[in-house]
User: Which sequence fits this backbone?
């Protein structure tokens, strides 16, 4: 077939040739992400910031400035207005009014619930044809809880994974995997800081899925490392790692490609509501694939796994 | 050679057929939905087929999602107010020993009393202990939960601190929440929407989900009001709120006139709890009003009160605002009456609903409110379907190009995988949300992973010149450990998401988790089955993976 033999198994790529350089790249990227996050912060959605979000559409041509003028002077606090595109319109016109303009309006701070009625009546007066697709109000009490739950979820995910890999492998593997995870999460936060995509509840879900995916990749490599450590007892660790990455490389690429194919379909066709989520996932798959080879395995190389697997200490690392 | 036992074929057939059977209604959604809603009508959907439909989340079908918090603290505060007035009465008699007695500021879960003479403190505590077993404090609806020790009494210097015991607090909270749930349910039911979900969340929260409702305004109007109705005696009327009020009196504003204030007796003559019915109607001038009926005991009270107070005004108070204050013109014996005010027809309808459903025991605060219009939901479903279709096709083509015949085996397994996820979602009654669809699309991408792991191993074995069947067997054996590890870790993420996520995110974790289980099943059982069939019946000389 067309793609057969794309990954020639007899060929060995030397993954560790530039690994020192790549370590600095990774460290640099982490540093830049942290700096970006501290300076720019994240563009938190109303889930985490509290406030009211309106998604409205109008068949008439309405400009962002018109909407802004309508709402200014109403003492509503900070308002942000952006225009959304709906890719479905161009793809399958007919299922939607194809000339619709979709706006997303976010109003900060809610005192009571009159923001909703106020904005609604203001908009209805100036744009009679307006349709309210979605209105969401999140009080500050809930938003702070959502932030806390989100952080707890990511934290627990990392911890449980650490424990699982520790039980199944050795502590060096666990540490390598977790460093790779943290690398992925920090880089994702960095990318969200600079691109100003909205950071909301679904991004937390994406982060957790990235953790799952990145780990999936790392574990497959590690599994091979463990096996090869047993088969090639005298081979230096570097060679064993390189061999293992090569053994699993075609699988790594295959799975990344199929996942990315599905994700790109979702990104371009899945609509605005989950675009941020899909973007995070695509980024996560790319970074996760990179980190399982260049971060997790590199850490393993640095920590130097002990080699006497089959001897005395057979209780460590439950095997199937 | 591979074994094709009867049991294995039977198991695979059963699973495939039942998956198809239970997933099938979803592919004829509108047809089945119609049949479910009008069972009497004849439908194109055959009777012997199952009616399992995936429940669509609010983000897909449109509707209102509302998270409410019941302010149970208010009820506790009210209890302490009553307790304080009773304690004060009993302590005032012993003023000689105790000196001055006053209530001081305290957190809402306690009552702090300061007395002048510190020596009298144990005496005062002794007096207060009397209330510990007093059932009067928890009269009427609280009486069910009376335990031996209602109060925890302690003292610091000359201050006495009174708290409710933990059991009492829990019982009180539970009763307030349960009652609120019941009243919220009655009010939501009055809107006539179908299948509203009303659930308790955590200790004092209520989650209300009403699918198909296009706007939250009506719901807010119905749930935002406590609807505590009382009929009070009017002491005087004034244009200022600075009226000196005695212990048993309170100043209340007026709905109709901003500059009018009423001084009322605190203890109502009768209250809304005693209503047996309330209906929207019209007064003698043809203006919208609400007519009501009292139960017999309240009717007697109300009758006696009107008989004795002909010519003086009384106030109809709703949520601490006087909605009208008519003058009693005659004795009203029948226990029925009419409330007039500046109502529109809509408002009188709503007031009647509120009065019928009863007052909420405490105020409720709206913490979270999400309204999704039906158009957006429909768009999301279409977008999700399209993405799943295109994403799925891309993966199928890619797998075929990469692995040829084996890729086609994996593709059949992948399609069965999606059907299995749909069937499981339908059987479990799980809710499908937009992130849930994303989870399915992601599963499409990741589901082939287990197959890929196996295929790559088989390839390695072929390169080692193992026999055909051995390559397959060893390939599967060696890949198993990686498959288990890789999927357990993703499963961990899905489980954590399930417990920490809310609403749509939970939907994502469900489809992701189910997808992991079904993809491992299809890779290990279904693909293997096809490969074994191929080897058994086609007897290939070389294996091309």
Assistant:
């Amino acid at each position: 077939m067309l793609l057969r033999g794309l990954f020639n198994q007899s060929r060995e790529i030397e993954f560790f040739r530039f690994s020192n350089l790549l370590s600095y790249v990774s460290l640099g990227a982490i540093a830049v992400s942290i700096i970006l996050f501290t300076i720019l912060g994240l563009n938190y959605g109303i889930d985490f910031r509290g406030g009211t979000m309106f998604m409205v559409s109008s068949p008439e041509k309405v400009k962002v400035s018109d909407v802004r003028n309508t709402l200014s002077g109403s003492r509503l606090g900070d308002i942000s207005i952006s225009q959304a595109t709906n890719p479905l319109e161009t793809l399958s016109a007919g299922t939607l009014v194809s000339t619709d303009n979709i706006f997303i309006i976010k109003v900060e701070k809610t005192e009571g619930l009159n923001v909703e009625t106020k904005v609604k009546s203001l908009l209805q007066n100036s744009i009679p044809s307006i349709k309210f697709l979605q209105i969401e109000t999140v009080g500050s009490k809930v938003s702070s809880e959502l932030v806390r739950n989100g952080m707890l979820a990511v934290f627990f995910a990392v911890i449980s994974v650490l424990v699982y890999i520790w039980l199944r492998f050795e502590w060096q593997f666990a540490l390598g995997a977790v460093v790779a995870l943290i690398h992925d999460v920090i880089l994702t936060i960095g990318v969200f800081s600079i691109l100003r995509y909205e950071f909301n509840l679904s991004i937390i879900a994406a982060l957790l899925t990235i953790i799952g995916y990145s780990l999936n990749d790392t574990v497959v490599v590690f599994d091979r490392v463990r096996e090869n450590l047993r088969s090639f007892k005298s081979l230096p660790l570097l060679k064993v790692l390189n061999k293992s990455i090569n053994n699993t490389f075609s699988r790594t690429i295959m799975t990344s490609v199929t996942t990315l194919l599905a994700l790109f379909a979702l990104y371009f066709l899945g609509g605005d509501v989950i675009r941020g989520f899909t973007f995070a996932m695509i980024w996560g798959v790319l970074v996760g694939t990179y980190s399982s080879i260049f971060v997790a395995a590199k850490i393993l190389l640095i920590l130097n796994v002990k080699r006497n697997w089959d001897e005395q200490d057979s209780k460590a690392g439950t095997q199937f | 050679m591979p074994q094709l036992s009867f049991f294995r074929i039977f198991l695979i057939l059963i699973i495939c057929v039942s998956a198809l059977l239970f997933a099938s209604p979803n592919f004829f959604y509108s047809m089945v939905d119609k049949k479910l809603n009008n069972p009497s009508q004849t439908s194109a959907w055959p009777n012997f087929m199952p009616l399992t439909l995936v429940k669509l989340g609010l983000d897909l079908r449109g509707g209102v999602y509302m998270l409410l918090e019941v302010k149970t603290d208010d009820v506790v505060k009210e209890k302490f107010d009553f307790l304080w007035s009773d304690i004060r009465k009993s302590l005032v008699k012993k003023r000689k020993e105790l000196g001055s007695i006053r209530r001081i500021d305290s957190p809402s879960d306690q009552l702090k009393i300061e007395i002048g003479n510190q020596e009298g403190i144990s005496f005062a505590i002794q007096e207060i202990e009397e209330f510990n077993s007093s059932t009067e404090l928890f009269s009427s609806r609280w009486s069910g939960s009376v335990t031996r020790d209602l109060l925890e009494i302690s003292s610091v210097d000359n201050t006495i601190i009174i708290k409710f015991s933990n059991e009492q607090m829990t019982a009180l909270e539970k009763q307030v929440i349960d009652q609120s749930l019941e009243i919220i349910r009655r009010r939501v039911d009055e809107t006539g929407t179908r299948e509203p979900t009303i659930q308790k969340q955590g200790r004092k929260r209520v989650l209300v989900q009403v699918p198909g409702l296009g706007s939250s305004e009506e719901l807010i109007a119905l749930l935002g009001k406590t609807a505590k109705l009382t009929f009070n005696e009017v002491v005087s009327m004034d244009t200022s709120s600075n009226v000196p009020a005695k212990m048993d009196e309170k100043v209340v504003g007026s709905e109709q006139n901003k500059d009018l204030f009423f001084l009322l007796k605190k203890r109502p003559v009768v209250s809304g709890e005693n209503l047996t019915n309330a209906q929207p109607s019209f007064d003698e001038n043809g203006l919208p009003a609400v007519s009501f009926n009292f139960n017999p005991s309240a009717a007697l009270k109300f009758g006696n009160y009107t008989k004795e107070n002909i010519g003086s005004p009384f106030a109809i108070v709703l949520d601490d605002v006087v909605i009208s204050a008519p003058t009693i013109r005659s004795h009203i014996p029948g226990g029925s009456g009419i409330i007039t005010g500046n109502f529109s027809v809509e408002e009188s309808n709503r007031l009647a609903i509120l009065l019928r459903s009863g007052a909420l025991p405490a105020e409720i605060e709206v913490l979270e409110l999400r309204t999704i219009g039906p158009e957006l939901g429909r768009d999301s479903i279409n977008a999700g379907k399209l993405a799943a279709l295109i994403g799925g096709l891309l993966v199928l083509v890619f797998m075929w190009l990469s692995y040829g015949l084996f890729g086609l085996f994996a593709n059949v397994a992948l399609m069965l995988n999606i059907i299995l996820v749909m069937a499981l979602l339908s059987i479990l009654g799980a809710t499908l949300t937009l992130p849930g669809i994303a989870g399915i699309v992601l599963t499409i991408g990741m589901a082939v992973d287990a197959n890929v792991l196996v295929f790559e191993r088989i390839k390695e074995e072929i390169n080692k010149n193992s026999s055909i069947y051995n390559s397959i067997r060893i390939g599967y054996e060696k890949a198993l450990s990686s498959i288990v590890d890789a999927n357990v870790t993703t499963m961990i993420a899905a489980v954590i998401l399930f417990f920490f996520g809310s609403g749509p995110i939970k939907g994502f974790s469900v489809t992701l988790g189910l997808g992991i289980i079904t993809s491992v099943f299809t890779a290990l059982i279904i693909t293997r089955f096809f490969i074994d069939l191929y080897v058994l019946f086609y007897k290939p000389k070389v294996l091309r993976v």
Notes: Residues 139-147 of chain B have pLDDT under 50 and may be disordered.
